[in-house]
Design goal:
The protein contains eight helices and five strands. It is α/β, with parallel strands linked by helices. It has one domain: Rossmann fold (3-Layer(aba) Sandwich), CATH 3.40.50.300. A five-stranded parallel beta sheet has the order 2-3-1-4-5. α2 packs across α4. The mean pLDDT is 97. Bound molecules: shikimate-3-phosphate (S3P). The site of shikimate-3-phosphate has 10 residues, from loops. It is found in: Cytoplasm. Monomer.
Length: 164
């Protein structure tokens, strides 16, 4: 079994995932990192040169690979559930946990970030709200949802461990 962390960009999937893996004595993996390793390209380059559709294909490939393994805490990319079938892949060998945060908190965390191609727009806060609203039906499919807005990492990790 694996533990899949899903949720919007900037909700803390990587940070919480690493701490959770340490606490549970599991391995940690980040889908975006696996994509960078597999393609030899940064995420922004893949979006720019190959397009989002190609990125989603590679995302599903690395998800399938990690799903064949066990004992991983996996930080997914914020759009992993926009691809049909990815929910079923994760459920077949794992628990799915959504990390949630307010649009304002996400904006503060990502306002100077240049690694998120989907947020390279003029009005970032509006785009965060729009995308979050659009994806809400996907994020609520998780087995458990934990709020990460203005909370220390260990408190978030403890809440997830209690749920598990
Ligand atoms: C995306 C989120 C990113 C990355 C890509 C697309 C999304 O991952 O996979 O830029 O569609 O929300 P993070 O959630 O780790 O930022």
């Amino acid at each position: 079994m694996n533990i899949y962390l899903i949720g919007f960009m900037g909700t803390g999937k990587t940070t919480v995932g690493k701490a959770l893996a340490l606490k549970l004595n599991k391995k940690f993996s980040d889908l975006d990192d696996l994509i960078v390793e597999k393609t030899g390209k940064q995420i922004v380059e893949i979006f720019r040169e190959d397009g989002e559709e190609e990125f989603r294909k590679i995302e599903t490939e690395v998800l399938k690979d990690i799903n064949e393994k066990d004992n991983f805490v996996v930080a997914t990319g914020g759009g992993v559930l926009t691809t049909e079938g990815n929910y079923e892949i994760m459920k077949s060998n794992g628990v799915i946990i959504t990390l949630a945060a307010s649009p304002e908190a996400i904006y503060e965390r990502l306002r100077n970030d240049e690694t998120r191609p989907l947020l390279m727009v003029d009005n970032v806060i509006d785009e965060i709200k729009r995308l979050m609203f659009e994806r809400a039906p996907l994020y609520i499919k998780a087995d458990y949802i934990v709020d990460t807005t203005e909370r220390p990492i260990d408190e978030i990790v403890n809440e997830i461990v209690e749920y598990l």
